[in-house]
Every structure is written in C-alpha cells, then in structure tokens.
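In response to reviewer comment 3 from the previous cycle, which asked for concrete evidence that the modeling workflow produces usable outputs, we include below a single protein chain processed end to end. The sequence was submitted unchanged, and the resulting structure tokens are shown without manual editing.
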Amino acid sequence: MERPWFETIFDERYPELFGPVEGNAEEEVEDLLGFLRLPPGSAVEDLGCGRGRHAVPLARRGFKVTGVDISETMLRMASSRAEREGVRVEWVQEDMRKFRRLGAFDLALSLFTSFGYFSDAENQKVLDNIGDSLRKDGVLLLDLRNAGKGLSRLEDMDKIVKVPAGSLRMSVRFDRRAMRAKAEHTLTRPDGIRISSAFDVRVYSMEELQEMIRKAGMKVRDFYGSLSGKPFTDESTRMVTVAERGS
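The workflow returned the following structure tokens.
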C-alpha cells in the first residue's frame, strides 16, 4: 500500500525543495513573540516542528519548548541543530492526530501551513488535541496560507525560481469540490538530476476554522495577515488565526 504524502515528504530532500519558500524563522519568532507577549519561561508546543526552525530560537530565548513531528529525519536534523547551539528542546516523534498532553502548554504553534493534511474529521482531531493540551487561557497560533476571504481567490499557480541548488518549479492546483490545494515542487539540479515532492492540504474558510476551533474548546480572538499581527485582508499572504482556550 502506498504511504500517504505526509509520511514521505519530510525527508532529506525537504530543505532543497521547500527551504527556498520558507520565511526567516528568527524574524518570525521575534514577530510572534512581540505580537503575543508570551511570559518568560512559558511552555510552548511547536506542532509539526520540522527541523526545528522555530523551536530552537524559542528555546534559545528561554522558553520550554516541545517540538512534535512525525518525521524521524526532520527531528534528527532538529536535534543536531539544538545540540550545536547548546539549547534544550524536548523532541517528540508522533502523529499530530495522536499527540495530546493534558494542560501542558501555554502556547501551541502550527506554522507554515502545518495544518489541514488530513480529512475534516482528522483535522478536527488535531485541533481537539491542541485544545486539550493547552492550559486555561492558553493560546493557539495557526499560520496558514491565505486563500482569500470566502475562498474566492483559489487560483492555480505555476512558478519557476532560481535557487542555490538549481531551478525550482512550484505548482499549485485547487480541487474546488474537495476544497484542497494540491501542490508539487520539482528541483532540477545543474547536473540534470531532478527531485520532486507533492502534497495536498484542506483549505478552510474563516467561518469553518472558527467552528472547528470552538468545537475544540477554544475561541478565536481574531484573524491576522502576518505573524506580527498585521490586519487580515484579501491581499494578505498569510491567514494567522489566534485562539484562546477557555476554562
């Protein structure tokens, strides 16, 4: 049986295929900390932490960070970086549909569109787990690609960019019936060797996210257009949802 994309995409090829479109994690951490005003020493869950791009800078700033990811390869990279930089992070290899630690965290982060991989029911389970894992008044920050208010701007995309490792072709196709974005990145190296990875995620409206978050025992504070808390508009690159767990 063929393994699902989220069990195969996060391997040694990932930095070459997706690194060029990642933001500056150090700046993003500064932005979200300035925006959220998280008390020193808070417990942070980085769900879908990958190779520790945000978890390590957070730990360096004195937060108690738990990085959760399904990929052994990504966690190995993350652990190596943490060791090099002399910071302590708890790394947990687990499926986000299963990871739950009751009342353990002040902040849960889901960054760089690390949500929406599964069916609607399974995506709800991810949010349920986050809600259960947050302390009273704990905060969820959910960072997704902005598809436009009302999902009216689902535009297919093809783009080729030059990157240090060669030429990277990025394509996105929207399945409007299933409301899923299907994407593929293909890197052609100077020696002609090609590597590629494909993925697809569910695209949710603001209203759908609000209801799912409510079911998970949290309440949406607001939607923003960046990790620094800029207002959300149709032209925003990101859709950042900030929610809070009730009592």
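The two ends are 43 Å apart (CA to CA). We consider this sufficient to address the reviewer's concern, and the full set will be provided in the supplementary archive.
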